Amino acid sequence: MRAMGKGLDLLTAATGFGVAAYVAIIVDCVACGQLGWSDGQIRSVALLVAAGVALGLALDFLGRRWRKAG
Questions:
Q1: For the whole prediction, is pTM greater than 0.70?
Q2: Over the Cα atoms of the chain, what is R_g?
Q3: Are residues 42 and 26 in contact, defined by beta-carbon separation less than 8 angstroms?
């Protein structure tokens, strides 16, 4: 009996989205209130982090495909 399937169900996706939204709100509050960052600074950092995550996901996905092909 398998504990987890390979598919992504709706509950898992909704939970992940909700947690990510909550973390984004908390990080925004801390950055504005405690660190005193402007909206432009927060936007720049968010774009850099998003690009880093996207690059990591792309490298992981492509790395798996290249290992299968070889």
A1: no
A2: 17
A3: no
Residue 36 reports pLDDT greater than 70? yes
Distance between CA atoms of residues 15 and 8, nearest Å: 11
- pLDDT over 70, % of the chain: 86
What single-letter amino acid sits at 63?
A: G
Buried b (16+ CB within 10 A) or exposed e, 39-65: eeeeeeeeeeeeeeeeeeeeeeeeeee
Q: How far apart (Å, rounded) are the C-alpha atoms in residues 52 and 46?
A: 10
DSSP 8-state code for residue 35: S
Give the span between the Cα atoms of 15 and 31, in whole angstroms: 24
Among 54, 27, 55, smallest CA distance to 43 is for 27
